[in-house]
Amino acid sequence: MINFIKHRNLFFWISGVLVAAGIAAVLVFGFRLGIDFTSGSLWQLEIPATDANTVNTFFTSTLHIETSNVSYDSQSGVYSITSKEISDQARQQYLGELKQRFGDGVKDVDFWNVSPSVSKELKQNAVLAIAFVLIGISLYVAFAFRKVSRPVNSWKYGFITLLSLAHDVIIPAGMYAVLGKYLGVAADTNFMVALLVVMGFSVHDTIVVFDRIRENLIIYRGKEDLSGIVNRSINETMRRSVSTSFTLILVLLAIFFMGPLSLRFFVLTILVGTVVGTYSSIFIASPLLVVWQKLSERKRV
């Protein structure tokens, strides 16, 4: 049986560095917000025999359109141009100029406009969604561990679950801030959905381990101390946690490499969140429970 509790300080240091890096990235770089949250237009075009830099230069210099991002999907051959809001009339005019410059092979694949009022509503909905998820998780944990076995109070399980949740969200969020800074990746509604998925997976994985701890506190009370019971519980649930995560990771990798460009960073966020969530449920959440309980016992003495 692996003694995870013995090496908890190493795991805490690794997480501390990653979380600090994530927070620093968000504070320094911020997020490159997509049109979902800033308003604007997303225009998808097939443009033959060119590259993203040439397309970007043509939009900014010739069409005088301020673009925030130009990306190319090599699988579909489609350019995605994000810019300030473009009217339908102006779009037809620009399409004509594009065909004059790049030939009749230019095809208008798709076009979206997001007005300022809609983007404001999407921002509010995103904040509300995260708030409802956090409230729902808190209520669920409080209910699930309402009759938890001593010596650990039920509210400690809930608080550590929320700490693990923050850990699992901050790290992929920091990654997204770096991608936005250096690759122009926009944080849009897909990003928010990915974070919500990560939250759900993180809580599920942590609750599985905590539930086993609760059961073992009854079975091994008086036979082992809390550290031994928690360590036993981690070993008993680790195979299930890793197997479940590994299966999900294989699916996400397939979508990441074979799926459309529009889903790539959405999938990457869930992928990183899955790895981090599995790590935190095994190496962070349960050892934190032991450390906290030991500190509480010392204060009583």
TrEMBL record:
InterPro entries assigned: SecD/SecF_arch_bac (IPR022813), SecD/SecF_bac (IPR022645), SecD/SecF_CS (IPR022646), SecD_SecF_C (IPR048634), SecF_bac (IPR005665), SSD (IPR000731)
GO MF annotations, alphabetized: protein-transporting ATPase activity
Record-level GO BP terms: intracellular protein transmembrane transport; protein targeting; protein transport by the Sec complex
Compartments, record wording: Cell membrane
Membrane topology: Multi-pass membrane protein
Every SSD domain range: 126-291
Transmembrane segments: 12-35, 126-145, 157-179, 191-210, 242-259, 265-292
Keywords associated with the record: Cell inner membrane, Cell membrane, Membrane, Protein transport, Translocation, Transmembrane, Transmembrane helix, Transport
A single GO cellular-component term on record: plasma membrane
Subunit structure: Forms a complex with SecD. Part of the essential Sec protein translocation apparatus which comprises SecA, SecYEG and auxiliary proteins SecDF. Other proteins may also be involved.
HAMAP family reported in the protein's UniProt record: SecF_B (MF_01464_B)
NCBIfam families: transloc_SecF
PANTHER family attached to this UniProt entry: PROTEIN TRANSLOCASE SUBUNIT SECF, PROTEIN-EXPORT MEMBRANE PROTEIN SEC
Function: Part of the Sec protein translocase complex. Interacts with the SecYEG preprotein conducting channel. SecDF uses the proton motive force (PMF) to complete protein translocation after the ATP-dependent function of SecA.
Family recorded in the similarity comment: Belongs to the SecD/SecF family. SecF subfamily.
Name of the protein in its database record: Protein-export membrane protein SecF
Organism whose genome encodes this protein: Candidatus Colwellbacteria bacterium CG_4_9_14_0_2_um_filter_50_12
